[in-house]
C-alpha cells in the first residue's frame, strides 16, 4: 500500500447570540439543561464570609487543605500527617452566603483525585522547598516559614520535621504524579480509591450543614515570610 498525503481543511465558526437558533435541537436539549441547572443550583452550605485565594496563605486555601486532610482520614481510615493543595488548581472562590454545587465545580473544574503517599522527611523537605520557592501553597497539618525561597522552621505533628521519619500525606493525583515540577513525588507509590477532590469538598461542606454549622475559615499563620 502506498501512503498518500491527505489534505485537511477546516473552517472556524464563532458562536455568538446573533446566529440562528435550531428550535428542534433546543427542545431536545431542554430536559437535560433543566436537570443540570437544578443540580448545579442545589444549595449545600452557607459561608459567613467570602473565601478567596492568595499567597502565602488564604482563608480559602486553609479551608480546602483542611478538607483534604479530614476527608482523606475518613475515606482511607488512616491518620494523615499533612495535606496539600496546589495553588494553581484553585480556579475560583467561595462567596459569602449560599454555597451551591455549581460553585464547587467552578472552584475545582478538574477531575483531580485525592491520593495518599508515605514519604520520608527528607523528601517532604524537598517538596516544601518547592512550595516555598513558588510563594506558598495551601497546606494542613504543617506550619513553616519561607526564607530565601526555602522552607524553614517546619513543624509537623507539633514537632520539628524529622528527615528520616515516615509521613503520610494527602495530595491530588496531579501533584503526586509529578505535576507542577513536583518530580520528587512522582515515583513514590500512591494509594488511590478514585475519590475526587471535588466530591470531597461537596461532602465536607454538607457535613458542616448537617451539624448546623456555617463555613467560617480563619487563617492561623501556617505559612509566614521570614526576613
Protein model, in words:
With 227 residues, this protein is an alpha+beta fold. The chain has six helices and eleven strands. The chain has a single domain, classed as 5'-nucleotidase,  domain 2 (Alpha-Beta Complex). The strands form three sheets. A five-stranded mixed sheet has the order 5-2-9-4-10. The mean pLDDT is 92.
Write a compact overview of the structure shown:
This protein has 227 residues and is an alpha+beta fold.
Overall strand count: 11
Strand numbers in spatial order across the main sheet: 5-2-9-4-10
**Topology pattern, helix = H, strand = E:** HEHEEHEHEEEEEHEHE
* Spatial separation of the terminal alpha carbons: 70 Å
How many structural units, i.e. domains?
A: 1
What overall form do the CA principal axes indicate? globular
Q: In the CATH hierarchy, what is the architecture at level 2?
A: Alpha-Beta Complex
Specify the oligomeric state.
single chain
Q: Which CATH class?
A: Alpha Beta
Amino acid at each position: 500500500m502506498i501512503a498518500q498525503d491527505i489534505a485537511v481543511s477546516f473552517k472556524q465558526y464563532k458562536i455568538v447570540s446573533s446566529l440562528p437558533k435550531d428550535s428542534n435541537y433546543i427542545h431536545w436539549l431542554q430536559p437535560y439543561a433543566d436537570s443540570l441547572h437544578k443540580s448545579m443550583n442545589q444549595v449545600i452550605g452557607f459561608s459567613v464570609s467570602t473565601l478567596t485565594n492568595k499567597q502565602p496563605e488564604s482563608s480559602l486555601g486553609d479551608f480546602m487543605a483542611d478538607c483534604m486532610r479530614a476527608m482523606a482520614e475518613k475515606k482511607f481510615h488512616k491518620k494523615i500527617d499533612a495535606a496539600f493543595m496546589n495553588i494553581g488548581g484553585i480556579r475560583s472562590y467561595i462567596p459569602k452566603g449560599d454555597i451551591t454545587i455549581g460553585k464547587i465545580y467552578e472552584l475545582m473544574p478538574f477531575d483531580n483525585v485525592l491520593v495518599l503517599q508515605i514519604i520520608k522527611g527528607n523528601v517532604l523537605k524537598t517538596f516544601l522547598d518547592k512550595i516555598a520557592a513558588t510563594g506558598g501553597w495551601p497546606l494542613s497539618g504543617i506550619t513553616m516559614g519561607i526564607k530565601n525561597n526555602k522552607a524553614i522552621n517546619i513543624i509537623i505533628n507539633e514537632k520539628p520535621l524529622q528527615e528520616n521519619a515516615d509521613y503520610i500525606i494527602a495530595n491530588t493525583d496531579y501533584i503526586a504524579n509529578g505535576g507542577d515540577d513536583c518530580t520528587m513525588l512522582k515515583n513514590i507509590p500512591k494509594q488511590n480509591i478514585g475519590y475526587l477532590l471535588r466530591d470531597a469538598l461537596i461532602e465536607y461542606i454538607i457535613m458542616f450543614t448537617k451539624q448546623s454549622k456555617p463555613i467560617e475559615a480563619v487563617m492561623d499563620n501556617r505559612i509566614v515570610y521570614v526576613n
